[in-house]
Design a protein that fits this description.
It is found in: Membrane. This is Neogenin. It is a single-pass type I membrane protein. Keywords: Disulfide bond, Glycoprotein, Immunoglobulin domain, Membrane, Repeat, Signal, Transmembrane, Transmembrane helix. Belongs to the immunoglobulin superfamily. DCC family. By secondary structure, this protein is mostly beta strands. Among the domains are: 92 residues, Immunoglobulin-like (Sandwich), CATH 2.60.40; 99 residues, Immunoglobulin-like; 83 residues, Immunoglobulin-like (Sandwich), CATH 2.60.40; 89 residues, Sandwich (Immunoglobulin-like), CATH 2.60.40; 86 residues, Immunoglobulins (Immunoglobulin-like, Sandwich), CATH 2.60.40.10; 84 residues, Sandwich (Immunoglobulin-like); 84 residues, Sandwich (Immunoglobulin-like); 91 residues, Sandwich (Immunoglobulin-like), CATH 2.60.40. The protein contains nine helices and 78 strands. The strands form 20 sheets. Strands 69, 70, 72, 73, 74, 75 and 76 form a seven-stranded antiparallel beta sheet that branches. Strands 1, 3, 4, 7, 8 and 9 form a six-stranded mixed beta sheet that branches. Strand 23 and strand 24 form a beta hairpin. The radius of gyration is 44 Å and the shape is extended.
Amino acid sequence: MAKMFSITPETLEVYLGDIAMFQCSIDGIPQPKYSWYKNNVLLKRSNHIKMYTDGFLEITNVRAIDLGKYYCEARNMNTSRRSRPAVLQENTDLESIRKGVAPSFVMKPQDAEVIRGSLLVLHCGANGIDRNDGSPKITWLKGGVELDNSNKTYKIVGTGSLVIPNVQENNNGIYTCRASNMEDSIDAPASVNVLSPPKFKTKPMNAVAQVNSEQMFECDIYGVPPPKIYWMKDGKMIETDDYFKIVDHKNLRILGLLKEDEGMYQCFGKNYLGSIQASAQLVVRPHNDSHPLTPTLTHSPTIPLGLQNLNTDSLPSVPVDLHEVIRAPSFVTLSWKPPTHTGPKDAKIISYSVFWKEKERERERVMNTTSLEATIQHLKPNTVYEFRVQAYNSHGPGKAVVIEVESEEEVRVPSPPRNAIAEAVSPTSIRVKYEPPEEPNGKIKSYKIIYYEVGANKEAAIEVRGLEYVLTNLKQFRDYSFRVEAHNENGAGMSTEEFVAKTKADIPSDSPTNFTLEATSSTSIIVRWEPPPKDHQNGPIVGYKIRFKKKGSRRGKTVTTASNVKFQPLTDLEKGAEYSVRIAALSTLGIGPFTDWLFTKTYDDDLDESHVPGKPSKVRTAAEANSILVRWAPPVDSSKTLVRGYTVTYGKGIPDVMRVKLGPQQRVYKIKNLQPASSYVIKVMATNKIGDGPPIYAHVKTDKESEIDLATPMIPPVGLKTIVLSSQTIVLTWTDSTLSRAQRITDNRYYTVRYSPVYNKKKYRYINSTDLNAHIDHLKPNTQYEFSVKVTKNLRKSTWSMSVVNTTQESAPGGIPRDLTPAPVEGNPLSITLSWQPPPRPNGQLTGYLIFYTTDSHQDDRDWVVHNVDGDKLSSTIKDLTPDTTYFYKMQARNNKGYGPMSPTVVYRTSKADGTGGGLVQVPDLPPDIQQFDFKYKPGRSFLPPDPNEPRGVNKEPNEDENDDSVPTNVMIIIIACVIGVTFCIAVVAVAIVICKKKEYRNKRSSGTYASPAKGKTPKAPTTKDVKPPDLWIHHDQMEMKNLDKSENRESSAPTPAPSQRCGESSKCEDSSLMDMEKRRNSLVGDPSYLSPAPDERYPRSIIRPKPIMISVDPTQPMSRDPPVSTVTAVPNGHFPGAESPQSQVAVRPVYPRTQYNTQYSTPPRVHAGDVSQTTSSLQVRAVPQQNTREKLALLDDDDSCLTDTLDDPYLSRIGYGMYYFEF
């Protein structure tokens, strides 16, 4: 037994008639027994003295003889201890009693941890005498709801102690003891945590596995506190490594099984209340000729066993050209070609097995695949692995081909910080603590705490220097998720697993809503309300406190309710008196703000019940075929005569066949199960204790029942069809078999469409339609939806129809590629490898990525070098870079419908020629809310490492003493003023030129300059000097829009001929000048042998924008006044007409007519994104680079169709940012 008491009795001062409670407690094994003494005399139990085994003494209705000194004695075997004495004395302040005393606790309940199945007692006692000589009433609440006294699970003993005889897990929670009288009410909360020894939820099962396969043993144990789970094999503790892993802190996973792994595996769970264990046997079998077991098996053919003596000619040979495609620190991608010999003539390769292991290690793993490549994950960095691949046909496995690959060295970043925890400090702050990582891999510069409110979609981050940090300005009583990562000179390390903490509760910050008063009699008022707004409750609401007082009175009264009560009657009020009432919400920490005072007046007199009420007024009816709806108003004298209810009688021809009694507040009643086309008499009477009042009558005839309704039941619609219009829109059509063959709706029926994504059928959406189709918008791109329809007519409804499923079209990616990370290529300082993660919303199958990089971030996006990545690869290597140079990288994803947004810029410095230096360039500290935004690099900024002698990855701190080279303010103002003046002059000159040319054009048109040549005469072909290309801005009225109905009708329009169809077979469709331009473009990349992509290649590997060109016109063709067949049409949203049709497979950019004014793109360049040129049947366009007028015609090919076809090349369809000339 301990030497000191942990709890000792305290002195009390009470009024005679109050209660007194003392407590003492001391630790000891076994549990001590307590006895109480008064004035050194042993106390015995009596009617008003109760002693509990847990050390509590309770004295009710204190008398003068009970005053004195009290102490307790604890005995444990041969040891005893006495507590210090406490004095029980009388309170002589009788004046306070006359005014009324609010409740005060003499004993509050205490937080308790109790073992499941044991006894729990929560002690509570309070004193206080109100003006009516009333003692406090003790009530218990759990979670703000008052406990039901009739529930056998709970029991109230003594003056208000709560007893739970058999505690179970559902008894966890917050309990509140509430003491209330007419003066006020007070609350005391206590938390109950039920402890439980470990018990199994899932036990490990016996297993039989094959060599090189994987095995998972599941073991799930419940307990409070959570038990620690550990594993043993044949009685020996299992040490985790690369092949024995503990998953989710409970399950055992064994990789690359060996025969020696056979044995008994035991799962143990233990907390301080006990421990349990369960075992399972593992049997490992050797290989046979069937596929080795693997969880990643994508195809499992049936292969006969026992084929060891099979002729080897029936088996496939080794796979060809096994090589690595991607090599990273944690994974390797292998590729190979099929074997040259697949077996007999009818044999086919059905799958491949990929085995891998660390070199000179025995434990081997395997995966199966049906493709010609495989990605092996979870490798160790800087480790040599031995891979072997063998093919399978229906006769068995062939020989294996072997290759050794060394995984790349991992960037030396810190491991995760250890023992990271979060704890609430206040309702608006949480403290995060952690320890340094086990492997810092250098000096730790800082830590980053990433956090977000659970349920929110935005993270915040803050960088700190120490090992703990207090986050402030959080929301009250909210869950927040945290993770921490350490940073060294190489960048951010691995983050911890997410851990959650909740801010503390607080008092409500707002008052209840919808607060109303209603006088119900001369002595009562009804108070109604709703809880405070959810965001202002700041924790669980445990009740409401109502204060009310009579007008002119200084002191009021208080009524307290449970949290699940939304109205409260105030009774025993004075007649004809005005009362003011207000209400506030209660939490476990206190009371929130009160509402404003509301005022109401009780009736002057009680309602009279000495005679029957008058007859109801304003009776109205609404008849249907089988029912009548009756409405009425109360009697005119109801404000003076008490109405306790209403009586409704009805019958066919006479009113007293059926009788229904209703409540005093009911004013509407629907009479059902009537006969159609029949006359009914209805009688309504008000009633009280005296009897029924005078009736009011109504004569009503029910409607005829529709013959169509009788003959035609409501059958659900059939023949549902869906038409996909776009990535967000689907049109649904159906047929109603209850309509005529013409499917015309002539009645008031309507249809309800129900739809939802196939993967989430619980969240349906509904729309109504009065026609046989519905246009459904705001769908998700590339998502499969399920649709069904039902019909409603009057009060009749059908069941839901059979469902139809369709998928919306793809759209451009909606998110940015994540985690763009550059890394050096070993042994090659002129190359780096970029890796990333796909965007969160691809909105379709990703077809590739565009990587933009430059050495000057001030350049426009179109001037950055573009590197193309095809397919869904997540890494790429940039070559031919300059050593010791800072590069800026960003990227965007693409699919068949276009491009996604651009990712944030990453800054990286290449290493020197000798391979030293280089690495990620650290950016300055940014606030958490703007860390995700892009930034522009400025030469000379101090966060770039200009000094080559500095260590790799070390950033130079800004020098505040350096001179500021910025331009003085006065000089800057003068420069800006000059630029504005020059711009204004240029604009005036340009407007004057436009007006003059327009006037000249009108004069020529009026004089017949553009008329067709006379019949029989051959117009003289103009020379090169005479050619004046039209300005499409000035002469825009020469281009007329063609019929949009033809262009917008995607389904009926004729298909556009392919480029190969428009070129003659004898023509080569090549232009030497364009080939020269292609070579010049390749020379910018640094690869002179690079060949131009084929016309049908959608995404070239690497593109540099060429110089702008100018499109001219064949001057030999006369100008016609007839409307042109083809037009130049700017199509919105970056698509041609028909681009959103299901047949469209590529996204295209809009083609606008170029003018003589330079046009700059304001969006990032779309380099070879599958663009195609707009094809026409009669528009012939020629294009030449902008040089001089004399050289334009010299570069044109004689064959117009050949040149037009050349312009259909994706490369040529992308060029042009300068000056263009068109002629039709």
